[in-house]
Amino acid sequence: MTAAPDGLPPLAALDNARLDWRHDASGEAAPHSPAFDDVYFSRHDGRAETEHVFIAGNRLAERLGAWQAPRAFVIGETGFGTGLNMLCAWACFDAHAAPGARLHLVSTEKFPLDREDLARALASWPDLAERSERLVAQWPEPVAGVHRLWLDERVTLDLHFGDTAERLALLDGRVDAWFLDGFAPAKNPEMWHPALFQAMAARSRPGATFATFTCAGVVKRGLAAAGFTWHKAPGFGRKREMLCGEITEPPIDDRRRRTPWFTPPLPRPPRHVAVIGAGIAGASAAAALARRGIAVTLVDRHARTEFGTTHLQGALYVKLAADTNRQSRTYLAGLLHSRRWLAWLDPQQALWRACGVLQLAMNAKEQARQARFLANHSLPESVVRGLDAETASACAGIEIETPALDYPNAAWVKPVELCVRLAETPGIAFHRGEVTALRRQAIGWTLEMADGETLEADQVIVAGAAETATFPQTASLPLQPVRGQLSQLELPSGSPRLNRVVCAGGYAPPAADGILNFGATFGPGDTDADPRDADHDANVKEIERGLPHFVAALRDAGADLAPERLTALVGVRAASPDKSPYCGPVPDADAWRQAYAVLAKDATRIPETPGPHHPGLWVSTAHGSRGLASAPLCAELLASRICDEPLPLEQPLADHLHPGRRVIRDLIRAASGTVPNGRQHRQQRASE
Asked: Which run of H or E residues covers position 482?
């Protein structure tokens, strides 16, 4: 497959592995790949082989038992297969690691099993049944990219779907122990090539170990050329020998030569973090840190529990570009991430509903755009599909006059109640107040409050929407406030029912608690929080335009859509100029402009200087109207960076979100005076 227009691998569905089931001597059926003519695990004793080769070969029981570092122990794997290796590593961790330790698993897979085959393959190991059920319950759609799963409070699994060498080249994180697995080199020569071993070496920590079942010459030569030392060890069963080894001095990661400004700060694991802002960005970041054992003070001017019952419903949705770009990749990753996260956090769906979202094509231009999107992205229909008006009507439960894109696994969410739930995560202390200044100390930060009180923290995350830029340290972030007014209607009995969230110029989710939410208006630069009858009128006109038959049926049932009969909910969001969030360390903008001033003269001259940041200061903001799809993923991104873990996004996508990207963009644009030339434009795109 050719690269996408943004230079990354194609954003597409992956082919599921095709299996047949062959019976071993005991009569048990074991999974076999007809494509590679090889077994997924030994028919003699797959569990024992995993324990011998990968667990013992990496000395995991000993190393996990002695693990005292504040960060997670990271295991990387080439070829997830049935997941048996990772489940065994998890069991080893539970048996030997100290109570405060954490485990982070990273595994690649080009041909993921479907959910049913995965469950059947793992049914062979009853003692792993509980772990298998958690894995199967969160099993992601076969979409190229990174998929984070929460196996328990201390164990995280990142599945990197795609070609192994390609996925490891995009990994932002380092590994302590490698499971070098996959079908045998003779069966799958495309995987066992030099790029694989080089990518492993570049993503290894000093002293990282590896173990593999094969002693093939191509493997020994590839490992040695990449910097690993290896030795033979007794193999398992009929395999006389296997390989083990380590890498003492991994090569320097040279990916930052073209984007040195995005070099992350050196990790300083904190004991206490203050998070400013208790909306979805701040509350999800606080919860992500608290789950990692970090004490968090969540600061907000408002006590969320005082809002009462708002009946507010937000749409978990995205609008993806017709042509692949990094923003669309990030938002699709966020949509899939939030969907798994919500199911893990609230399996009873008390705070959300997995009802799906229809995105209407209201005119010829939008219909052409949606058609181009579908032609450019061969995503699974379980993720997104095109529907004609008749099929869209059947899904929505009401008559729709236009074709639409359907996101079957999207949802609506109660955002206020969700934030309250997140703020109740053990380890989070809520502090009501307004932060007026941030003062850097020799160690950590002082937060000065409007009432004269002060708070101390090792590190700070600012997640205050448009108010994020009120501090001198964050003032360089271009942020635009956007006012939105949502209208709420108490439905009379006999009202028609929506089965899907429907989006066009606004959105309308299925009614909850007898209340229909619809809207919302879009007012860039407007910060007025007072309700407006004119905005109610605009919301009514918009829902009539998109769902005329639904609105007519509402009126037939006795619904009164006059402004005085509607309830208004007004909020002010924040947006960035490029409509992507800011997530990451806060740059010292003046130092960046000085360090990279040469870019304003010649965008091809790239200094080697890493970008200076305000130590221990982070930001998550500019989530706009799609915060339910972006904020939870950004929360994991921040927590992973702060805790020195592998990131839940590919490195170029994490860079795309970096808060310093606009500084670099403005310098590069200055090189040409107005619009970058072709070469400069490519450099600008690489920087963003």
From this structure: strand 480-490
d(CA 584, CA 633): 12
For residue 445, the cross-strand partners are 440, 457
pLDDT for 676: 42
Selected residue with higher pLDDT from 134 and 238: 134
Residue 344 CB coordination number (10 Å): 14
Question: Within 10 Å of residue 440's Cβ, how many Cβ atoms?
Answer: 14
Q: For residues 574 and 620, is the Cβ–Cβ distance under 8 A?
A: no
Residue 678 CB neighbour total at 10 angstroms: 7
Task: Please name the residues in contact with 224: beta carbons below 8 A apart, sequence gap of 6 or more.
Answer: 230
| Same domain for 111 and 230 | yes
- Residues in the chain, total: 688
Instruction: Please give the single-letter amino acid code of residue 228.
Output: F
Q: Tokens representing 193?
A: 């090539």
Is residue 371 pLDDT above 60, yes or no?
yes
**160 and 286 in one domain?**
no
> Tokens standing for 348?
């009873």
Provide the CB-side half-sphere exposure for 645 (13 A, CA): 28
Angstrom distance (rounded) from CA 125 to CA 392: 43
* Amino acid present at 615: P
Residue 460 is which amino acid?
A: V
Whether residue 316 is contained in a domain is answered as no
State the pLDDT at residue 680. 42
Specify the number of domains making up the chain: 3
Query: Which has more pLDDT, 681 or 21?
Result: 21
CA atoms of 77 and 212, how far apart (whole Å): 10
Residue 320 lies in a domain: no
- The answer, as to whether pTM is greater than 0.85, is yes
Query: Residue 259 and residue 251: Cα distance in Å, rounded?
Result: 18
| Alpha carbons 172 and 177: distance in angstroms, whole number | 16
What is the rounded distance in angstroms from the CA atom of residue 461 to the CA atom of residue 471? 12
- Rounded-to-integer distance, Cα 492 and Cα 299, Å: 40
- What CA–CA distance (Å, rounded) separates 165 from 76? 12
Q: Report yes or no: 361 and 371 within 8 Å, Cβ to Cβ.
A: no
Domain termination site, one of 521, 551, 575: 575
- For the cut 90, the answer to whether the pLDDT of residue 528 exceeds it is yes
By DSSP bridging, strand 295-300 and strand 272-276 are: parallel
Buried b (16+ CB within 10 A) or exposed e, 199-217: bbbbbbeeebbbbbbbbbe
Structural domain of 612: 260-305+417-479+577-687
Q: What is the phi/psi pair of residue 548, to 5°?
A: -60, -40
| Residue 400 and residue 511 in one domain | yes
The CA distance from 35 to 627, in Å, is: 42
Identify the pLDDT of residue 586. 98
Per-residue tokens: 519: 């809207």
Report how far residue 520's alpha carbon sits from residue 312's, in angstroms, rounded to the nearest whole number. 12
Give the phi and the psi of residue 176 in degrees, each rounded to 5. -95, -30
Q: How far apart are CA 462 and CA 479, in angstroms?
A: 13
The secondary structure of the chain in percent helix, strand, coil, rounded to multiples of 5, reads 35, 25, 40
What confidence category does residue 672 fall into, taking pLDDT thresholds of 50, 70 and 90? low
Question: Quick check: 616 and 610 in contact, CB under 8 A?
Answer: no
Query: Which pLDDT band holds residue 681 (cuts at 50, 70, 90)?
Result: very low
Tell me: pLDDT of 413 over 70. yes
* pLDDT at residue 419 is higher than 90: yes
Q: What percent of the chain shows pLDDT beyond 90?
A: 81
Considering only the C-alpha atoms of the chain, give the largest distance between any 2 of them, rounded to a whole number of Å.
82
